[in-house]
Amino acid sequence: MAALAPGDPRRIGEYWLAGRLGEGGQGIVYEAYDAAGRRVAVKVLRAGDGVGTRARFAKEAAAARRVAPFCTARVIEADLDAPLPHIVSEYVGGPSLRRAVELDGPYEEDRLYRLATGVATALAAIHQASVIHRDLKPDNVLIGPDGPRVIDFGIARTREMSLTTTGHMAGTPAFMAPEIVLGRRAGPEVDVWAWGAVTVFAATGREPFGGDGVAALFHGILAEEPDLSMLKEPLRGLVAAAMAKDPRDRPSSRRLLLGLVGGGDELAPLLAAGTRTAELVRPPAGASPPSLATLAEEVYAGLVPGDRALVPRVLLRMITPGEGGDDLPRRVRPDDLLDGVVGAETAERVLSAFARMDLVAREGGEVSVANAALPRAWPRLREWIDAERDGLRFHRRLGEAAALWDGHGRRPGDLYQGTALETAVAWAATGRRHVTLNLLESAFLDASLALGRVRGRRRRQLTAALAALLVLALASAVVAVVQGAAAARQRDVAAARQTAARADSLRSSDPATAMLLSVAAWRLAPVSEARAALYGSLAQRERRVSAPPKVTAEARFALSGDGLTLAVVDQDRAVLWDVAAGRERGAVSGVGRAVREVALSRDGRWLAVAGERSVRVWDLSARRPAGPEIAGAARWLEFGPSGRLLALVTDGGRWQVWGVAGGARLIDRPASGAEAVAVSYDDRLAAPMLDGDRFELWDLTTGRRLRAPGGGRAVWVAFDPDGRTLAVSAGPDVVFWDLTGRARPGTRLEGAGAVWLAFGADGRLVVTYDKRSVGLWTSEGVSLLRYPLADTTGMPSAAIGADGRALSYLLGGGAVAVLDVDAGDRPPRLASEIRTVAFGGDARLAAVQTATSLELWDVAAGRRLGDPLESPAATALAFSPDGRLLAVGAEDPPVLTLWDVARRERLAALPLADVSWVGGLAFSPDGRTLAVSPSNGSFERVQLWDVAAHRKSAVLAHEGGDVMAFRPDGAALAVGGLGNALVALPSGRVWDRPFGPSDDGVRSVAFSPDSRTVATGFSKLGVDLWDASTRRRIGRLAPTQGRLDDVVALAFSPDGRLLATGGASGDVRLWDVAARLPLGRPYSAHSGQVAALAFGPGGRDLYSLGGDGTLQRYPVDPERAAAAVCARAGTTLSEDEWRGLIPEASYRKVC
Amino acid sequence: MARPHSRGVLSKGVLTVLRLLLLLWTSTLARLSGGGRRPGDGRDRDPAAVEYAEVVPDPVVLERGARTPILINLVTSGSAGERPRGVLEGPDGSRAELGFDRSDKAPYEEGWRAEHVFLPGIALGTWRAVIEYGAAVHELEFSVEDAEERDPATIVDFRVVADPVEEDAPITLAGFLKAERSRLRDRRVVLSFRPEDALAWSEIAEAWTGEDGDFAVTLDAWEPGWWRAVYYGTPRWSDGGHPLRGTRSEAVFMAMRSGPKTRSRFSGYTALPSPTSAGKLVKHSGRLIHETPLDPPPGVEWVAAASREVTFWFRPAGGSWSPNPVGRATTTNNGSFTKKLTASRSGEWQVRYGGQSGDLKATPKSRQVKVR
Question: Is the ipTM here above 0.90?
Answer without folding.
Answer: no
